[in-house]
Amino acid sequence: MQCDNCTNLKCHGGIWSRYSSHGYPFFPSHLGRANPCPRSAAANDCLFPLQSFFSKCLLKHREKRADSRICASAFWPQRRNIMALDSKVREHRHQFAAGHIRCRDECCAHSNARARCQSGNQSIACIDRHAGSWRDLQKAASQEDGQKVRLRAESFADHYSQARQFYLSQTETEQKHIAMALTFELSKVETPVIRERIVSNLLNIDANLAEAVAGKLGIRKMPKAADAMVPVRDDLAPSPALSIIENGPGSFNGRKIGVLVANGTDAQVLKGIRHAAEKEGAMVELVAPTVGGFEASSGDWIEADHMIDGGPSVLFDAVALVLSDEAADRLTREAAARDFVADAFAHCKFIGFTAGAMPLLAKAGIEPDMDEGLISLDNEKGASEFVTSCRKLRLWARENAVKL
């Protein structure tokens, strides 16, 4: 069915009648109006209900998609129009309302201008197109002096000064970690010449760093320092702001304490740890032989968060051993329990313990008075002192006693 006043297939009547002739029974173009064509005399009075019309048309199109193979050659130009309209409808579906269209030729739907046709300027309201509008592409001549060449600044030739300043700004512990990291990465390099070349670059940063890495790699003869394009600056003072340890949070807020418990655990000590951790803003999770829980000294049954085999100490920022003598003696025969304690000690974490946990500490090779990171929980203020000490996060001085 053609439009009453127009045979143009691009108008409303023509385009949908064209579909109907190929087996796509879309709605008639009138939609309650005698002359919907924008070329007709009544175009100014026609408002096209786009949302309802397109939604029903697209639904019909999807239902008869299997039949589209029959008339693919004839339908393809119109199908492209449908796909474009489908995308437009989905993009602005929330902005459509019956009888009028929002966000036509405008940004972010600043007006509710009505549309009369499907092509050309869709807005009735005037659009500001004056020069300098944000919609227009603006060009400006740049004012530059001198020659424009593709050259890096001279400062790019200095490859070592900032690296030297960074390394010297670290604490002794952090410098050791940097050397260990370089050693690990270079140990994966198969070509000895490349390992030596990196060590020669490290000599321009710090001789002690280069010697530490070379010794770990087994380089018997130190190479010469690599040639620097510009002299390395030694006047850059160390900056404490570059150190992570020196700028720690000073709080245990948001951290997690893992408490190793079993049958007979002192309920008062456990309650004290929970209270101190809650006051600090930290979390407490219980690790027991079984995840089902344990019977505390008060006779209460308390459920655990982890079983020992599934809750290693690497999951926590600090650990506490709240065990009875009998439970600790039994756990000394379990590798997972021994590793729980040994790993926490090797990772320089703070460890709180009760007197009953002594056998487990001894089995892991740890003496209760080895350093300040081992804190007794038996006294009245033990729990609060333990959580307060955890604000340091790690006791890095312990690394000297542990072979990592």
Automatic annotation (TrEMBL):
Heme as UniProt keyword: yes
Stretches assigned to the Catalase immune-responsive domain: 154-216
Domain Large catalase C-terminal, chain residue ranges per copy: 254-398
Record's keyword annotation contains Iron-sulfur: no
MF (Gene Ontology): catalase activity; heme binding; metal ion binding
InterPro entries per UniProt: Catalase_clade2 (IPR024712), Catalase_clade2_helical (IPR043156), Catalase_immune_responsive (IPR010582), Catalase_large_C (IPR041399), Catalase_sf (IPR020835), Class_I_gatase-like (IPR029062)
UniProt xrefs under CDD domains: GATase1_catalase (cd03132)
GO cellular component, one term: cytosol
Matches recorded under Gene3D superfamilies: 1.20.1370.20, 3.40.50.880
One BP term from GO: response to oxidative stress
Cofactor: heme
Pfam families referenced in this protein's UniProt entry, alphabetically: Catalase-rel (PF06628), Catalase_C (PF18011)
EC assignment: 1.11.1.6
PANTHER family: CATALASE, CATALASE-B
Record protein name field: catalase
Source organism of the structure: Brucella intermedia LMG 3301
